[in-house]
Design a protein that fits this description.
By secondary structure, this protein is an alpha+beta fold. It contains six helices and 21 strands.
Length: about 425
């Protein structure tokens, strides 16, 4: 390969210096060498410039001889390349702007959420009649699905999903006709301190508290609705327990053992019974029982019945107790031997197979006569054999019993009259 002429000159100059016999510094040689290198570089640059000019001239000549279609095709390619570069540049710029906008919006949303101390209300077109629907709508809203959350009516739903979510209506008491019950609205947000609106069977209740009392006046089911600030509603249908109105029958006893004794029977079974006679509670609490009254007359008897679900009903009515057994005891006798009322015994106990006992007492309580036979009346003497007793009032007592372990006791007074 032909060596470069500047290189030859450089080599020739170096050789000539070697032939000379004189001393020189190394630094002097470095300065000469740098100048020689500069000269060589200038020469090379000039040659490159000449070559570039020649190549440019040839290109212009060739361009003038190229066909028109080839030129258009080249322009199209260059334009396409420019457009591609422009689109990529635009795309990069747009993505960068969108990312910056998203970051700004995210920061603004976080700042807004931090500054808010209480739940805001967002007006959305929905209809939510139950807490379940509210939860479903809130879930759609939280996922950005506002279109599917829209319905016909309008309601205010808080951004805090738990703020107005009524979970249930608690019932305290037995839902029975005539009873009073307590209704309480329950929800997960215990910090809520707003008003409540209550309706029972469509009638508004004049109470804005969380709990209300309601008196049931019929056996029809009731529909209870409660809302918080008049927006979110929760409803519950309460079934009224029905219990049949009780009634009872009674039988007034007869005879020396059952007189003034009345048998009561309720028309209801398998329920708890509570009986009251003249406001006195009677034991036991059964559907059938007997009661011994003190004497004939009118008595108020009231029956309460209680069902398994603690519903109660009652009935009250008067009964008449009559004296069916008459002891037929004379109120006076004259022991003078004339054959008329000469002795004393209650005739109602005669001709009976009962165990019989009669006792006579003076007004001081002293026993003056006693017998166990209905054939031995009192003749007015002490023990029927002693001295004659003075005229006056005396007390008699009779007790009877039978083989059925029935017993009864009677008492009264009789006047002893002496004619001579």
């Amino acid at each position: 390969m032909k060596e470069n002429s500047s290189y030859k000159e450089d080599k020739l100059f170096r050789d000539k210096l070697e032939e000379l016999d004189f001393e020189y510094n190394y630094q002097d040689w470095r300065e000469i060498e740098s100048k020689l290198n500069h000269t060589a570089r200038v020469a090379r640059v000039k040659k490159l410039g000449y070559a570039a000019a020649i190549i440019g001239s040839i290109s212009i000549l060739l361009w003038n001889f190229l066909p028109t279609d080839t030129k258009n095709q080249k322009d199209t390619v260059e334009l396409s390349i420019d457009k591609t570069k422009s689109y990529e540049s635009y795309k990069l710029t747009e993505d960068k702007v969108n990312t910056q906008d998203l970051e700004i919006e995210t920061k603004e949303a976080e700042k807004k959420h931090t500054e808010e101390n209480s739940p805001k209300q967002v007006k959305i077109e929905v209809l939510a009649s139950t807490a379940k629907e509210v939860t479903e709508i809130n879930q759609k809203i939280s996922h950005g699905d506002l279109d599917n959350a829209k319905k016909e009516d309008q309601i205010l739903i808080p951004e805090d999903k738990e703020a107005l979510s009524i979970d249930s209506i608690q019932l305290i008491g037995m839902p029975c006709n005539g009873s009073s019950i307590t209704l309480t609205a329950h929800h997960s947000n215990n910090s809520y301190s707003g008003n409540y609106s209550w309706t029972v069977n469509g009638k508004e209740i004049d109470n804005r508290e969380k709990s209300i009392s309601h008196l049931i006046t019929s056996e029809d089911n009731i529909l209870v609705e409660v809302s918080m600030n008049g927006q979110i509603k929760f409803s519950r249908e309460i079934e009224i327990s029905k219990i049949e109105k009780p009634d009872f029958t009674y039988i007034d006893g007869q005879g020396p053992y059952d007189d003034f004794k009345v048998n009561f029977t309720s028309n209801m079974e398998n329920l708890t019974h509570i009986w009251r006679i003249d406001n006195q509670v009677i034991e036991p609490h059964q559907s059938e029982f007997e009661f011994l009254f003190k004497g004939e007359g009118l008595y108020d008897v009231e029956l309460f019945v209680v069902s398994e679900n603690k519903c109660s009903a009652s009935i009250k009515k008067p009964i008449s107790v009559t004296q069916d057994f008459d002891v037929l005891a004379p109120n006076a006798f004259t022991p003078d031997g004339d054959g008329l009322n000469d002795d004393f015994i209650p005739h109602g106990f005669l001709n009976r197979d009962d165990l019989f006992k009669m006792e006579i007492f003076d007004i001081s309580g002293k026993l003056v006569y006693s017998t166990k036979s209905t054939t031995q009346p009192w003749n007015g003497n002490f023990n029927n054999t002693g001295e004659k007793l003075l005229e006056g009032m005396y007390i008699w007592k009779v007790s009877i019993s039978n083989t059925k372990n029935q017993s009864n006791a009677y008492a009264g007074s009789v006047r002893l009259i002496r004619k001579n």
